[in-house]
Amino acid sequence: MLESVRSSSPLGAVSALAVGAVSALTLVSARVAAEAKDLVYEVDDAPAAPVVIVPGARVHRGRPMRVLRSRLDVAVSLMEQGRVQAVLVSGDAAGNSGDEIEAMISYLVEQGVNRERIVADPYGLDTYDTARRAVATYGVRQALITTQSFHLPRAVALCRRVGIDIAGVRAANDVRPRTRIRNLAREYMLSRPKAFLELRFPRDPAVSTPPDDRLAEILSGLEHGVVATPPSDS
Prior knowledge:
By secondary structure, this protein is α/β, with parallel strands linked by helices. The chain is built from seven helices and eight strands, in the order αββββαβαβαβαβαα. The protein has one domain (35-215): 3-Layer(aba) Sandwich (Rossmann fold), CATH 3.40.50.620. Pfam families: DUF218.
């Protein structure tokens, strides 16, 4: 009997650790989600704001993949409905899958968004950096942010933490089941615990650059009937 108890002890310890880890992840996820409570909308119900932030995601051969394309489609709808006046695309211009920024700009323009209403942040290397740089570099104080439902609570929470008056707008999550499972696993096991720490211990973005007035110029120009000219891509 004693031998049986001893042999089962390691398994019991592992089980206890597993239960503890799952409980901790669940608590962390709930705390992050609570930061975004009542701040998530469908596109047709979204409040007005000066700008919508579109976080980057994977591209393929210079084209947005499904996840990113869905986010951009929401931005297009918000512009068409007059709920926002400009789009801030934020991603990695040197990403592993390609230039997220160029892909986003090209797609938006193809869908009829005026290039002069688009501002690009090539150093939005993760969601926290996107939020922090939106404030520190581009002077964003009020905005919408669009991404998939699994990502929105984290995105909204981080934007709130850095001082943005933010609301989230759901984008479609039209991906294969295995991709959806992988995204959810990464979100709950890695991304939200990371965000939990960032909410409590703010850091500087990975790349800091001088303030950029392009967004302010666009919005000011619209108020006075003049649209700022976008920077040259050369």
